[in-house]
Amino acid sequence: MTEPYRVLVIDDDPGIRDYLEALVSRQGFQMFSVAGGEEALSRLEEIRPDVVTLDVVLPGMDGLETLKQLKERLPDVPVVMLSGHGQARTIVEAMRCGASDFLRKPFEVEELELAFQKALEKRALKAEVEQLRGRARSEVETLLQFGDNTKMKEVRDIIEQVADTDITVLVRGESGTGKELVARAIYQLSGRRDAPFVKVNCAALPSELLESELFGFEKGAFTGAQKRKLGKFEYANMGTIFLDEISEMHPSLQAKLLQVLQDGEFSRLGGENDVRVDTRIVAATNRNLEAAVREGEFREDLYYRLNVVTVHIPPLRDRPDAIPFLVDHFLRKYNEQYRKDVKQLTPETMASFMQYTWPGNVRELENMVKRMVVLGNEDTVIEEIASRGQADAEQANEEAMLDFGAVGEDLANHKAVDLKAIAKRASQFAEKRVIEKVLQQTQWNRKEAAQRLQISYKALLYKMKENGLSNA
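Now predict its structure.
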């Protein structure tokens, strides 16, 4: 069972302490209260607070001095300042000293709840960032060292050139090539690496939910909105936000994103005032955005705003020199994670890896290595690669038979040959086979298949019907 958050209230007014205790207990937190700064500092080791509320005006050591000493000893613990005056100079000084929020007395219950929510979520996000930072740094360094492929050298050069700027970056490549890893590399090498890195998958949520996820909402904005919720852009303030599968964003949201890119401002759902943020945007897509613009599925003005600097990640089949490095990296990673001791792959397995075309790219390779480490057996992976290779060969033979079988018969009988009809038949057959293969690779996820085929969802449904394709 998770321990409740521990809240330390520093206030010399017994009435305020009692009031705060009622509010804090209602949220399921454990409360500790003291009347002054000196007592609070002397009990920090005993209380170990997760969040602190601190009155500005205190007897003896005042609130600002208490805040400074608190932040020196517990820099990661958020402190919410409370004051009956709220002079601008005091607010500025408190925020400069590290306060996470500033509330004027008397405050609404919702204001305090929101201040706690914001402070604790930021702290949790920071802890997550720290936890992931070591792993991400290792993966970034690995990415920047993988192989001598010319295209990957270009990727590394661009990352190093743009990382320490605020320029918007668009990362493009097939599914599984490592677009998020490139985004994290840009973040880790930037001056924003000590601020949050926030990832949002634009294809994972319906447009209505995605809007509230990105931009937040005000209390009462819709049914069920019982209190204000901050959006991902606010959590990524001073940091980096990674918008994965940006091509799947609804046009109405694209307009709002464009405003953030142009002005650094947006409004929460149900909000009347604009919110300003300083957030670096890295976006990614595996679709042909130019085609999406032509088809009216993606705003042209947003495309030009995003496409300032583009990083094209080549598929794994175009950089086989990286495979041994990747295999070694994933072996180390999963040996450590699962406490195994798979030293290296057999020469036969590595040869199969080098000859395979890797339609799922680096993600597919990682999953295969992970499976081998967990099972301690390479046979199933070898059989899987061999069966896929045999299926590809059979498909190629079938296509060849279609192309030339009937034609050869016509030629043998001295009949006329309709080249246009032959080309059309061959094209239809090839199209059917490619669509069928991509659908199988995506487990018949039509949306993902449409993205990989770089056609619209409606076009895919039409072609499936035309070619009699169904997973039923």
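The radius of gyration is 29 Å.
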